[in-house]
Amino acid sequence: MSIPEKENSVSGTKKKVGFAQAQKKISSFCAYQERCQMEVRNRLEEWGLVPADADTIISKLLEQDFLNEQRFADSFVRGKFGLKKWGKVRIRQELKMRELPNSLIQEALDAIDGADYQETLRFLADRKWKLTREPDAYKKKAKVTRFLVFRGFEPDLIREEIESLANERDI
């Protein structure tokens, strides 16, 4: 491999893909797992497609139901809440970063069962409380609170849960 060829392969130049090949590859990309329009558009840009061609492909994917943002939002919420134990605040932020409409985001978040949500918050708070080795009660509460805020739970729910844990543990 000559030096100019090496530089091109290392620098990460865009892979040029033709329209027909891009359409076939992006269909497989969408069939593998749920995607949002932004992810598909970014992938098509990486392949060097012009925006007009990308729009054409995206409209065909929408028509054929390969691309469905409601399904994506529902799947994303189920996965992040169920597996990663994220709260609604963090999930909402992630979906907004993917440029989904607020109505779809809210509808997907409403599908989370309130009892499951509270139970997950309780589980995480209790586990973090037990694992936190801090003799000072104020610092311990702060550490657990920061952890739960990072996970994306609402501050008022966190406050209630921390107070409940502190009272149970007689701190």
From TrEMBL:
Report the locations given in the UniProt record.
Answer: Cytoplasm
Pfam families, A to Z: RecX_HTH2, RecX_HTH3
InterPro entries to which the protein is assigned, alphabetical: RecX_HTH_2nd, RecX_HTH_3rd, Regulatory_RecX, WH-like_DNA-bd_sf
Entry annotated with the keyword Transferase = no
Which residue ranges does the record assign to the RecX second three-helical domain?
Answer: 68-109
Q: Where is the RecX third three-helical domain?
A: 116-160
Name of the protein: Regulatory protein RecX
Q: Which domain of life is it from?
A: Bacteria
Could you name the Gene Ontology cellular component terms for this entry? cytoplasm
Q: Identify its protein family.
A: Belongs to the RecX family.
> Electron transport: present as a keyword of the record?
no
